[in-house]
Amino acid sequence: MSTTVTQDMSFLHLISSASLLVQLVMLILVLISLSSWWFIFRKLFVIRYEIKKTDEFEDIFWRGVDLNALHQRIISSRYESGSLERIFAAGFGEFNKHPVGSDLDAVMESTRRAMRATYQREMDHLESHLSFLATVGSVSPYIGLLGTVWGIMNSFRSLSSVTQATIAHVAPGIAEALIATAMGLFAAIPAVVAYNRYASRTDQLATRFESFMEELSNVLQRRAAE
Amino acid sequence: MSVSVLRNSSPSEPRILLAGVLALLVHLIFVAIMIFGLDWKDHPPEGMVVDIWTELPKPIQEPVKTQPPPKQPKPVPEPVKPKPEPEPTKPEPPKPEPAKPEPVKPEPVKPAPQKAVVEPPVKKPDIALKQKPEPIKETKPDLEEQKKKEQEKIKEQERLKDLEKQKELEKKKELEKQKELEKKKELDKQKELEKQKELEKQKELQKQKEKDLAAQQQREREAKAQREADAKRAAQQAAARNQVTNEISKYKALILAKIKSRIVMPPDLPGNPVAEFNVTLLPGGDILDVRVSKSSGHAVFDNAVERAIFLSKPLPLPPDPALFNEFRNLNITVHYRE
């Protein structure tokens, strides 16, 4: 956006000639943008990995594998396991701890609690940093706007010392100032897009986890009743 | 046991570093687009120029026929200024010229008589010294005469003879001296004559110089008259072409004003830098080329002016195509502060 305004001046020259506060705002925006993009890519990889692992585990689980063997394999390779595998391991481990013949309702209740606790932890992990992206998306345009307003204030103040006021006296200052807004928007737009996309993906994963928990408790209840 | 193990195992996050590298990459790409995107826009399109040239060969030939007008600037300003200047200056030089030779002439005249006066007195004492020792020698032989009368007589005779000889010698010497004096006088006269001749010659030279000066003055007057006549003609011509020059200067001022109105002055440059540009125009006011003939030293200011020149096209040109030659190569000087 600012590129059309700064057609006559070099981009770097405009940034270097801006006032201190505008430069500070630009620096903050650059740092915010860098970290937001870092989190965007991190969350991208994490969510992709979780979806892939969940698909794989559901595929294996519904093929009718021996649950004990599956549980053993998950515990042995726990650092490579996905969220859904860990929820299964927590629930199945809790279910197996109860001796055969104990109260079914109590067993199922404790199993469900164990699974829910793991589910909460996993969802917390998945949703971590998403709030940061939301904050960047909402706040960085305002930070950029602050820099712009300050820069325009300065350029108008310098206009007061000139007898013959032309747009030429104000234009460079405004061009500088608008760079701050451009940077704020540059940081905000991908953050908002990423936040919405990742939020919907984690919601999808959460519903899949919850439905799996219900199904697993049904499977375990049937197994206990036998 | 197994549950506690699971709880402690923090969920492994894949490829954190790759994410950081990708984030940096995105920003680098963005900055590169910003910088190079600006560079692309800095280059003005150049294809326009070729089409205009092919359309306008005839209007270029017409102004060639009416090229005499460009002579105006030469006679108009030049003859008008020199006329007042030579009138006071030329009468002045002839006055100092005769004044200088006059003091020079008396100088050679004075030293000549001084030499003539000094020389004779120097020779006179020489003669007196020679005469005095001679009578002293004569007294000594007188004592010998008293002892021997015969000898005295003979000696007297001899003395007389000697005296006569001496007298003759003296006479001869006197004659010689007289001759010498006469010669000196003659020489002096000759010298005086020569001096007179020299003076006459100098006078003649002076007269000649005066004549020459008079002739020169006459020539100068004639030249002045001619110049005045030329100036009158030039003035008539200038009057005839005043309208043309007025129009040219008017449109040059219009062009400069238009360019100045488009300049985006960079703020806070020190001093008053001046940028000079050589602008090549096409008929119709389009700009073919802009070259910096003298940079202001501030690239920002130069660029601003150059941009303003391009922005202000088409430049205002007089409707008469014959005047376009005055605008083909424009020199534009822009001051930072006016």
Word description of this protein:
The complex is a heterodimer of chains A (226) and B (338). Chain A has helices spanning 2-5, 11-16, 20-62, 67-76, 83-97, 104-127, 130-159, 167-225. Chain A is mainly α. Chain A has one domain (2-225). Chain A is rod-shaped. Residues 1-8 of chain A have low confidence and may be disordered. With 338 residues, chain B is mainly α. Chain B has a domain at 32-68 and 247-335: Fusion Protein Consisting Of Minor Coat Protein, Glycine Rich Linker, Tola, And A His Tag, Chain: A, Domain 2. Chain B is built from 13 helices and 3 strands; from the N terminus they run H-H-H-H-H-H-H-H-H-H-H-H-E-E-H-E. Chain B has helices at residues 2-8, 16-42, 48-55, 58-65, 77-80, 86-89, 96-99, 101-104, 106-109, 111-131, 133-147, 149-262, 299-311; strands spanning 274-281, 287-294, 329-335. A 3-stranded antiparallel β-sheet of chain B has the order 2-1-3, covered by helices on one side. Chain B is elongated and about 175 Å long. The two termini of chain B are 88 Å apart. Mean pLDDT of chain B is 71; it is low at 1-10 and 60-138. The A-B interface holds A 3, 6-8, 10-12, 30, 33-35, 37-42, 44-46, 49, 75, 78-80, 83, 86, 89-90, 93-94, 114, 118, 121-122, 125, 158, 166, 168-169, 171-172, 186 and B 2-3, 5-7, 9, 11-16, 18-20, 22-24, 26-27, 30, 34-35, 37-38, 41-42, 263-267, 303-304, 307.
Helix content of chain B: 55-70%
- Rg value of chain B: 53 Å
Any idea of the CATH class of one domain in chain B? Alpha Beta
The whole-number mean of residue pLDDT values of chain B reads 71
- Oligomer category: heterodimer
> Can you tell me the overall shape of chain A?
rod-shaped
According to CATH, the fold-level topology of one domain in chain B is: Fusion Protein Consisting Of Minor Coat Protein, Glycine Rich Linker, Tola, And A His Tag, Chain: A, Domain 2
Please tally the helical runs of chain B, counting DSSP H or I stretches of 4 or more residues.
13
Which residues of chain A form runs of ≥5 with pLDDT under 50? 1-8
Helix-strand topology string of chain A: HHHHHHHH
Distance between the termini of chain A: 69 Å
> Which regions of chain B have little confidence, pLDDT < 50, spanning 5+ residues?
1-10, 60-138
Classification by helices and strands of chain B = mainly alpha
Structural class of chain A: mainly alpha
Strand content of chain B: 5-15%
Overall shape of chain B? elongated
Number of structurally distinct domains of chain A: 1
